[in-house]
Amino acid sequence: MAGKKIGLRPTDALLIVDLQLDFFSGGKLAVPLAEEILPIVNGLVDEAQRSGTQIVVSRDWHPPDHISFVAQGGEWPQHCVRGTKGAELHPDLRLPPGALFVSKAKRPEREQYSDFDGTSLAEELRRRAIDRIFVVGLAEDFCVKESAIDAARLGFETHVLRAATRPVTLEGGERARAQMRAAGVRVIERVSPPYDVDHFSRT
Ligand code: VGL
Ligand code: ZN
Description:
Mean pLDDT: 92
Low-confidence stretches: 198-203
Bound molecules: pyrazine-2-carboxylic acid, zinc ion
Strand order of the largest sheet: 3-2-1-4-5-6
Number of helices: 5
Number of domains: 1
CATH superfamily: Isochorismatase-like
Distance between the termini: 26 Å
Shape: globular
Structural class: alpha/beta
């Protein structure tokens, strides 16, 4: 696929955020049109594998009484409860060997939208000499946004591939892209030509 044009390298990471059943249609916190990104993410996974790029797969992994749930006074329906069907990764997601898995928001009393919050992900990536991160997945206005902003803040050259993410709400997505850009994240509108990361990197 057009992923070739990204020019992934062995010192890049493809960060696939929360492609879990609860975020797809029929799930507890379905993100509109989430299904559309699966073939695009799978194409990127293939490209990453060909390029020796580290693949990272994150999961929202809540206890049943997580603070973000309505029953605890939070804003979300109960979702991605550890060990349940809804917390499973979407079966269509292609997962090559060698992927790194990150589970987050595991403690009842804390919300952690970012894959870097309360995890050792930054250290794991630095240990592998990774300097660029390409963020895809769900949801653009929550975990994708917070993970990308954290990645940029932590010094990684960070790209979000808009074609491979979807927001909970359209307004939320627009706001998220503005916030990400303000934080130095590069929001890439499409993964097909003329997008070419090396072009951006040289400037
Ligand atoms: C997420 C809402 C609640 C996400 C997680 O993965 O973006 N959104 N928990
Ligand atoms: Zn959650």
